[in-house]
Design goal:
464 residues, alpha/beta, nine-stranded mixed beta sheet, 2 domains
């Protein structure tokens, strides 16, 4: 299998194009969601989806909001608790949400994909996760070959627990590591040793999980180039199928947990870039393919195959091999995407639970996409996933003249052509090796919701 293109690391281009930008797990992004969108609108979207000649199959997401201790870098919607009853109370509310939601979907729409996120899904004990799965399968039909995945914190599960997850039907697992350096772990209040991580990954491989992923973060307090390189070497020795290398976004004005970090301990911009450059090179030298943004995978991974054949998609879980599904999400802050609508649940656990007790769908806000939104979403997704754009395909699908409709955007792309990030082709344009690190910068050219000069007003993480 031939290698995908290797990105070129250029400090000058990073200085020019590495600023803030959306991650485009959706378009429009969640920043545009409005409280004008209601539960009634969500119901209507489901009705319209059911009416399609061939309604899409389903992807389910459950947001388990609990963590037993705070990680200071965290930007997720989570609740810190050690309550023994919190998990069970959550399952009671979840069942109510399932009872309200599932009957709205025609019963011949199988679930092809499930993901449990958080928070920490393994805050729930294995018996509670078993209850959760039973609830889901009671209310939705699951395809025999459904992809069932969840995120785990290696501090909250052991090898016997991993074995139980596999017996429940889970076949994909994502392990949050972040960094294996004890000094970094202490600074971010997430302490676990390498042996814990190794035992979890080893157990997952031993019982036959189809895909094992790990999450790492660069830019955390106390990180050094030498220290993070040791982490990378240890991770490579564990041989995960996929690696996500996230760029830490220090936004304490938005995320309160980050105010507990000592800003003076954050690596300098030059050190942070060096960590990224070294990691990028080392992972590719070790045989991992660069998928895009912060994702790497082994050459035989299904994500690499999807990248090669043009079927990879972008959604709220990042890059995925499952396109064309309606996403139905449960739990506080969870976002659903049904047809051309996005709907987000109440963020606060109590608001979510009270709404369900009152027999109401817990939708707090959302958005109904316009035709222009859908068009731009397709353009942005193809840039983010394929690294190229076929103008003729867009013209065929939307009955328009691309160069006329996007005349302003094409003019704004000219500096990117001049700087070698993209090049014009017979069909449209293609991202070069120098542009691979800047897919978000290229994609945001087509985002009409950004300010005219492309400023993002401190809302998004840095691109590099």
């Amino acid at each position: 299998m031939s290698q995908l293109m290797r990105p070129n690391f250029d400090s000058e281009l990073i200085a020019r194009y590495g600023g803030e930008g959306p991650r485009y797990t959706s378009y429009p992004t969640a920043v545009q969601f409005s409280e004008d969108f209601s539960a009634t609108d969500y119901r209507s979207a489901i009705v319209e989806s059911n009416k399609l000649p061939i309604p899409p199959d389903l992807s389910l997401y459950v947001h388990v909001p609990f963590c037993s201790s705070p990680c200071f870098y965290c930007a997720c919607n989570r609740i810190i608790t050690r309550s023994q009853t919190a998990g069970q109370e959550f399952l009671v509310s979840l069942e109510k949400e399932l009872q309200l939601t599932a009957p709205l979907f025609d019963d011949d729409r199988p679930v092809r994909q499930l993901h449990l996120g958080g928070g920490t899904p393994t805050f729930l004990g294995t018996e509670q996760i078993r209850q959760l799965m039973a609830l889901l399968k009671t209310h939705f039909p699951f395809a025999a070959d459904a992809e069932l995945g969840l995120e785990v914190d290696p501090r909250t599960i052991d090898p016997p627990g991993i074995r139980e997850l596999k017996e429940m039907g889970f076949n994909r697992i994502s392990v949050g590591i972040q960094d294996l350096d004890p000094a970094v772990q202490k600074a971010i209040n997430r302490v676990h040793d390498t042996a814990q991580v190794g035992s979890v990954l080893g157990a997952a491989r031993g019982v036959g999980f189809d895909s094992i992923s790990v999450d790492l973060i660069y830019g955390l307090p106390m990180q050094t180039t030498a220290g993070f390189l040791k982490t990378i070497e240890r991770v490579i020795s564990m041989q995960p199928d996929r690696i996500s290398l996230f760029n830490y976004a220090h936004l304490p004005h938005i995320f309160k947990a980050q105010r507990q970090l000592d800003d003076s301990l954050l690596p300098t911009p030059s050190t942070k870039l060096a960590i990224f450059r070294n990691t990028l090179t080392r992972l590719m030298d070790a045989g991992y393919e660069f998928i895009g943004l912060d994702h790497f995978a082994k050459p035989n991974d299904s994500l690499v195959k999807a990248k090669r054949n043009g079927t990879m998609v972008r959604n709220f879980q990042g890059y995925s091999t499952h396109g064309g599904l309606d996403l139905v999400s449960f739990g506080p802050s969870a976002i659903s995407q049904v047809g051309d609508s996005f709907s987000q649940n109440h963020r606060k656990l109590q608001d979510w639970a009270v709404s369900l007790t009152e027999g109401k769908l817990p939708v707090a806000r959302g958005l109904a996409r316009t035709t222009d939104d859908r068009l731009r979403a397709d353009v942005i997704e193809r840039i983010m996933c394929d690294g190229e754009l076929d103008f003729h395909a867009i013209e065929r699908d939307y009955q328009l003249t691309f160069r006329r409709y996007f005349a302003d955007e094409l003019e704004r792309l000219e500096p990117l052509v001049k700087d070698g990030l993209i090049e014009w082709t017979d069909k449209g344009f293609a991202v070069t090796s120098s542009g691979l690190l800047f897919l978000r910068a290229i994609a945001k050219t087509f985002d009409v919701y950004l300010t005219p000069n492309g400023q993002t007003q401190g809302r998004f993480s840095r691109i590099v």
